């Protein structure tokens, strides 16, 4: 591991992630997230579905996969228009800061507003990180942003929320390992990428996108 | 047990569909129930854990095919070990395929994996429905993993895997439904529609509608309401 991974997973990296709640804002409104244990369950759902998909895509993009094809696979795994828009918005934000932070010709192969995990994979490669690093960053980011959003929305104790996130470490590692093992076992072919989905998150995202009074972009 | 089914639908004389290939071995038989429709008939109990079924459907340009089943399938656990039962539907569609089998009920301790891979030519029409109930009446839920991959005109349109039941990582209270229904359609576009525990999402020239809840008949109605 190098310090580039710490930078990539740092919530203070100005890639625009802080404006997204990863579905937490609507989950709070729906009464699904209201305390530390319901937050932990929500984060685990997110980690093992969209987090696993993001980890797989990021690892594949870092490992030199065809970026346009991976971006199309990300679309196929993200049928919710609201979630697609959120992912592409964050992808664009990451490209903006990543190009400056880790200059590399690798960025030029990305489509215009790439899905966030695909951009994350390229950022990892540009920062000389491994596919496992890219997967770990994707898996971690799938819960760290939503955890912070929950803290802000519910005025939760920051120490408690930090502990909830930290206790997910074994699950985050397992998701990152699985993303890379898929590759080792020859399942890096695109249909072999994880495709785990949670229609609850799709529903929350679409109800959220239609709201006029939302605080977060997604 | 290994089960293999193959049906080919072809545009015949005068534009009506003929079925030059209707083949089945293992636990499923195929019956022609109309000019362009077949029913899958279970000829054995199950599927049991470890069973492997593949249903290959080819609908050529200008042809239509409707595939139904006569009764719900009840997936039962393996006699030994915890191997899942697997059913793969592999569809190549240039015409129009309408796939609406009866529900799959997954008994306690069973794990059923359902995979649909549909490869569509330009102009193809697809409607594929899935209905799942975890556990029979009064029984603990079984586990179901469903993967759908639709490729249209060479581009991936939809690729999702849903895991339901004990042991599925995202099947967590308070949203851990016993019943599930989903329909994917390609051929006519539709936008986002949300309901109570139901959502329709647009695909290019199509949509996917999903609903979940405690009781299958309500869930099927909810899915139809957003379809």
List key phrases describing it.
heterodimer; A: 218 residues; 10 helices; B: mainly beta; eleven-stranded mixed sheet; 1 helix
How is the topology of this model organized?
The complex is a heterodimer of chains A (218) and B (227).
Chain A: H1 3-9, H2 24-29, H3 36-62, H4 67-76, H5 81-101, H6 116-126, H7 131-154, H8 158-167, H9 169-184, H10 199-209
Helix pairs in contact in A: 3-4, 3-6, 3-7, 3-8, 3-9, 5-6, 6-7, 7-8, 7-9
Chain B: E1 2-11, E2 17-25, E3 28-34, E4 37-42, E5 52-59, E6 64-69, E7 73-75, E8 85-93, E9 96-100, E10 104-106, E11 111-120, E12 125-134, E13 143-152, E14 155-164, E15 179-186, E16 193-195, E17 198-203, E18 206-213, H1 216-226
Parallel strand pairs in B: 1-5, 4-6, 5-8, 6-9, 7-10, 8-11, 9-12, 10-12, 11-13
Antiparallel strand pairs in B: 1-2, 3-4, 12-15, 13-14, 15-18, 16-17, 17-18
Protein name (chain B): Urease accessory protein
GO molecular function, one term (chain B): nickel cation binding
Keywords (chain B): Chaperone
Give a short synopsis of this structure.
With 218 residues, chain A is mainly α. Helix content of chain A is 66%, strand content 0%. Chain B has 227 residues and is mostly beta strands.
Structure explained in plain terms:
- Chain B: This is Urease accessory protein.
- Chain B: InterPro entries: UreD (IPR002669).
- Chain B: Keywords: Chaperone.
- The complex is a heterodimer of chains A (218) and B (227).
- With 218 residues, chain A is an all-alpha fold.
- Chain A has one domain (32-209).
- In chain A, 66% of the residues lie in helices and 0% in strands.
- Chain A has helices spanning 3-9, 24-29, 36-62, 67-76, 81-101, 116-126, 131-154, 158-167, 169-184, 199-209.
- In chain A, helix 3 (36-62) packs parallel to helix 9 (169-184), helix 5 packs parallel to helix 6 and helix 6 packs across helix 7 (131-154).
- The radius of gyration of chain A is 16 Å and the shape is globular.
- In chain A, 57% of the residues are buried.
- Chain B has one domain.
- Chain B is built from 1 helix and 18 strands.
- In chain B, strand 16 (193-195) and strand 17 (198-203) form a beta hairpin.
- Chain B starts with a strand and ends with a helix.
- At the A-B interface, helix 3, helix 4 and helix 10 of A face strand 13, strand 14, strand 17 and strand 18 of B.
């Amino acid at each position: 591991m190098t310090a580039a991974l710490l930078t990539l997973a740092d919530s203070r990296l100005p890639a625009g992630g802080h404006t997204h709640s990863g579905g937490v804002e609507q989950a709070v409104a729906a009464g699904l997230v209201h305390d530390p244990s319901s937050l932990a369950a929500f984060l685990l759902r997110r980690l093992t579905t969209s987090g696993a998909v993001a980890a797989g895509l990021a690892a594949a993009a870092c490992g030199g996969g065809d970026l346009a094809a991976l971006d199309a696979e990300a679309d196929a795994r993200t049928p919710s228009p609201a979630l697609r828009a959120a992912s592409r918005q964050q992808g664009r934000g990451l490209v903006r800061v990543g190009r400056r932070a880790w200059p590399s010709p690798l960025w030029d192969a990305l489509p215009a507003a790439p899905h966030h995990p695909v951009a994350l994979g390229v950022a990892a490669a540009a920062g000389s990180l491994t596919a496992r690093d890219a997967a770990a960053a994707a898996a971690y980011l799938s819960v760290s942003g939503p955890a912070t959003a929950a803290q802000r929305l519910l005025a939760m104790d920051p120490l408690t929320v930090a502990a909830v996130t930290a206790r997910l470490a074994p699950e985050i590692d397992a998701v990152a390992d699985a993303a890379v093992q898929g590759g080792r076992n020859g399942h890096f072919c695109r249909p072999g990428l994880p495709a785990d989905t949670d229609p609850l998150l799709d529903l929350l995202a679409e109800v959220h996108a239609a709201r006029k009074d939302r605080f977060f972009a997604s | 047990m290994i089960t293999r089914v193959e049906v080919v639908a072809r545009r015949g004389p005068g534009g009506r569909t003929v079925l030059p290939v209707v083949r089945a071995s293992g636990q499923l038989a195929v019956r022609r129930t109309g000019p362009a429709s077949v029913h899958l008939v279970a000829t054995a109990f199950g599927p049991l854990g470890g069973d492997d079924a593949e249903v290959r459907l080819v609908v050529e340009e200008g042809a239509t095919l409707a595939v139904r089943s006569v009764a719900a399938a009840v997936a039962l656990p393996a006699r030994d070990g915890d191997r899942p039962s697997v059913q793969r539907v592999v569809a190549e569609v240039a015409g129009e395929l309408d796939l609406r089998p009866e529900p799959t009920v997954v008994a306690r301790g069973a794990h059923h994996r359902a995979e649909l891979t549909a490869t569509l030519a330009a102009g193809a029409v697809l409607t594929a429905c899935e209905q799942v109930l975890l556990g029979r009446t009064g029984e603990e839920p079984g586990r179901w993993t469903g993967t759908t991959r639709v490729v249209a005109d060479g581009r991936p349109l939809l690729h999702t895997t849903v895991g339901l039941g004990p042991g599925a990582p995202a099947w967590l209270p308070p949203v851990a439904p016993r019943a599930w229904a989903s329909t994917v359609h390609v051929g006519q576009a539709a936008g986002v529609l949300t309901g109570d525990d139901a959502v329709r999402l647009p695909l290019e020239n199509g949509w996917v509608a999903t609903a979940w809840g405690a009781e299958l008949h309500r869930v099927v109605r909810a899915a139809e309401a957003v379809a």
